[in-house]
Amino acid sequence: MNGPAPWAGELEARLGRRVEAMHLLPGGASKEAWAIETDEGDLLVRRALGGVIHEATLSLEHEFEVLQAAEEAGVRVPHPVAYLGELAGREAFAMEFVEGETIGRRIVRDPPAGLDTQLADELAKIHAIAPERLPFLRASDIVTRFEHELDSVGDPHPALEYGLWWLREHRPDPLADVVAHGDFRLGNVVVSEHGLVCILDWEFAHLSDPREDVAWPLVRAWRFGVDDRRLGGVGEVGPYLERYEELTGRSISEQELYWWEVLGNVKWGVGCLTQCRRHLTGLDRSVEYAVLGRMAAEMEYELLDLIEHA
Amino acid sequence: MPDRPAAPELIEAVSEFLSGELLPTIDDHRLRFRTLVAMNALGIALRELEAGEGGMGEDELRELARRIRAGDVDEGLHARLKEHVAEKLRVSNPAYLEKYE
Question: What are the backbone angles phi and psi of residue A179, rounded to the nearest 5°?
Answer without folding.
Answer: -70, 120
